[in-house]
Write a structure and sequence with these properties.
The chain has about 70 residues and is an alpha/beta fold. A four-stranded parallel β-sheet has the order 3-2-1-4, covered by helices on one side.
Length: about 70
Amino acid sequence: MKTAEFFAGSCSFSNEAKAQGYYTITNDIQPFAGIDIVKDFLLLTKEDLPDSLDVLWFSPDCSTYSVAATG
């Protein structure tokens, strides 16, 4: 199975996918450790990604969409 994690940050989904033996690719706008494609998600092209993916996982910025934003 091929997976992609967008807004990956700490790569929590991809780390588990790799542990299960899946191929995975990660994307984030910042060069965190383990990020494969450092690029704004809105600027990605089909050439940036593998030909076919089975799972797309999106983890939007937690500081915007969680209680961390009230801080």
